[in-house]
Design brief:
By secondary structure, this protein is α+β, with helices and mostly antiparallel strands. The protein is built from 16 helices and 21 strands. It starts with a helix and ends with a helix. The structure holds iron/sulfur cluster.
Amino acid sequence: MKLNKIERLKLVQSPWEYYKKLETLQKIGEIDRFYLKNFGIYNMKLRADKFMLRLRFPAGRVTSHQLEAIWQEIVQKEVELLITSRAQIEIHNLTLYEAITMHKNLEQHGVTSFQTLTDNIRNIVTDPLDGKGKGSILEVYNIIQDMQKIFLYKKEFLGMLPRKCNVAISGMQYNIVSFFGNDIFFGLAKRGGEFGFRLYLGGRHSDLARDTGIFIPPKDTVRMFYAIILAYKKYGLRSSRTKARLYHLIEAIGLEGFKERIKEFYPKNFIYGGELLISKREIDDCIELNDGSFATRYRTNFGRLSKDIFYKIVQLSKQYEIRFGADQNLYIFGAKNINLPQPIEYKNVIVCAGEHYCAYSLLNTKEQVKDLPLLLLKQNNIRLHYSGCLKGCARHILADIGLVGIRTNLFGQVERGVRVYVGGEYTYGKAPARLIFWAVPLRKISFLLEVIVRDFIKSGFNDFEEYAKKLREYSSEQVAFYYLQLMEKAKGDITILPTAQQLKKKEQDLFR
Ligand code: SF4
């Protein structure tokens, strides 16, 4: 097989061998950029002076001691903090020296940035209410830790997969986000009287993971995970970087073909069947738990955490258990109310890093999102995922409405706009949101969203996923034409809710 450039690099020097170079590294080139990613240090040629460190928190769990250690590292620095949609923390605005030093210092406190970027198994995610929330059947934290032991700090896995591999497992009936966009997803299932997991494979930002039909008892889950990653490592495609995800291998050899490869590493016979137990349920910011106690969801500023807020979280962690959610929010266990400013009213919104943090982005998504009718979306439990470019880190297909940043000259001058995806059936992993509009200028997007939401309200469906099923009886073009007609009819009739400016001002007042 002809190997791509990165694979050829790995043959000359593995990331494991490169690690010792960190001791003396002062200036970096393109090759270093690849190797540094294996230790969670990210830099782009376009922003050569800025480095980011990404920290791994399996299942989103973090201790007070770890939060305190992070605080000590950042307290004197002009950094910016993001919670990602894999429940990790990113520390932005570092120099190379600061990133390497911080990486090493935090390792002493059990906070690692190892294997959080490039060709690695990324932070393993689950629901933040794992083991505690209503509908929690199997607590999976220990399983996640055992999975992580297989590959973390291991020479044979450090940067040695063909491409990144996202993994999720959930023992919950209700999940805050859909996990069907992961390469490997173990979803809560029941077979006969036994609880376990149904296995889904080959998801990515633009495709849902496929149902293998395999049921895995909890005691065999880690072994199955190990077999899958060994099969992917051995048979994954390595000639093109853009065609190396597990998805592509499954496309090439078929799902049955890949299952045969897994058998090579899995000592037992596959068990088939089992019913997926995932259901839909909306939660509010004050969440009643299984034992009658409460947790509070602290909605971040679309993933952004100011240093002031982070400090307050560190203080809270001395009294309450804190977890990071894959919805970019914080969960504080044992607290019914917390005294932290929540400047923006929104729910079920995931926003990628955007142009302030990511050079690929065509939009400042974290600011632009505030101009959308967020209250209307919230009132109707509509899930919105917003990405700054086609890489789709915010997983636009796993939402009721997905937006992806573009530039367009379709309407005259070049301007910023979005692609609009509508109607993902994400709860059960049945269908991705469909591309309805190729290019909507930003100046029209709030109006369009308001038209869509109002049509949903008028439809009488209680749940947007049900409404989406109805829409699926029509082609994407028909749906697009339908919405355009509604927009034409609504001209002058719909007032955009005054959320954007008012919320911005409120936020400024609160954070001042
Ligand atoms: S979706 Fe694009 S712009 Fe957003 S974080 Fe990912 S790569 Fe960057």
